[in-house]
Amino acid sequence: MTDNVLNVVLGLVASAISAALGWLAQALRRRRKVERVREFLGLPAGSECLIVVPRSVGAGSHANTVTRRDAYALMWLAGLVEECGARPELVAHDAAHRGLGAKTELCLGGPVSNERMAAHLAWGLPGVLITSGPGPGSNVIVVGDREFAADRDQAHTLLARIATPDGGRPVFLIAGQTGTANQAGVRHLVAHHRQLARAHGRNGTFALVLRVVNPEAYGPDMVELAADVTAEALRRPAAAPAAGVGTGTGTGTGASAV
């Protein structure tokens, strides 16, 4: 074998080794990213996840029906779970009679349309008050002394992650003032879960209020952060809210997700 041929062979071998090492490094980076996402969502490969389904609230609605926009949101959540290699289990809001921490839980809808959501708010985010009703200005998310009202130009979603005791699997809450807001909150979680993990840690609790801009024109696509309300949401209020107001206890005057 001449020196020229030997140099060519050595060059090809070196290129193959470099390509293999580059591929391995990229695979390891992708795996670390996936593992970080799984840790944040509490979804190791092969695990199970509860997706708690709200009911449709309104005149003529059947107790077991789901609105079209909530159905879209549930499909996005199921896709996120399957992306992590986990298995989603859909369960009705009034049939999820189980404790916390054994499985990751993704809970959709306000406390009026979702009894499980009402329980989670009362337990994990006592500083959050969600009112709901048919009239203008009746759909409000109150956190501490801050109010986020829905109107023609905007709607809001509470997006939260609650760490459970003893290092159990987390609970994620997406409570929108409308069905469009529910869908927007889910899409924000799906699109930005890596940024959320970096900003708030992979094992902590956070509560964010997202603003859906002009939902009648843009649907669930225009979303911005209205406020990080984690500290206020975790603070238990000194006095109980007035009777007849929809809160974490599930009382209210109308639908929180339509």
Numbering strands along the chain, what is their spatial order in the largest sheet?
Answer: 2-1-3-8-7-9-10
Task: Examine the secondary-structure arrangement and name the CATH architecture.
Answer: 2-Layer Sandwich
**CATH topological fold name:** Chitobiase, domain 2
Give the CATH level 1 class: Alpha Beta
Query: How widely separated are the two ends?
Result: 78 Å
Largest sheet: 7 strands, mixed
Q: Give average pLDDT, whole number.
A: 82
Based on DSSP secondary structure assignment, what is the total number of beta strands? Answer: 10
Query: How many domains, in number, for the residues?
Result: 1
CATH superfamily: Chitobiase/beta-hexosaminidase domain 2-like
Q: Would you summarize the structure shown here?
A:
With 258 residues, this protein is an alpha/beta fold. It has one domain: Chitobiase/beta-hexosaminidase domain 2-like (Chitobiase, domain 2). Helices cover 37% and strands 22% of the residues.
Task: Explain this structure.
With 258 residues, the chain is of the alpha/beta class. The protein has a single domain, classed as Chitobiase/beta-hexosaminidase domain 2-like (Chitobiase, domain 2). The chain is 37% helix and 22% strand. The protein has helices at residues 3-41, 68-83, 115-124, 179-200, 215-218, 230-234; strands at 48-53, 87-92, 104-108, 128-131, 140-143, 146-149, 154-162, 171-176, 206-213, 223-228. Helix 2 (68-83) runs parallel beside helix 4.
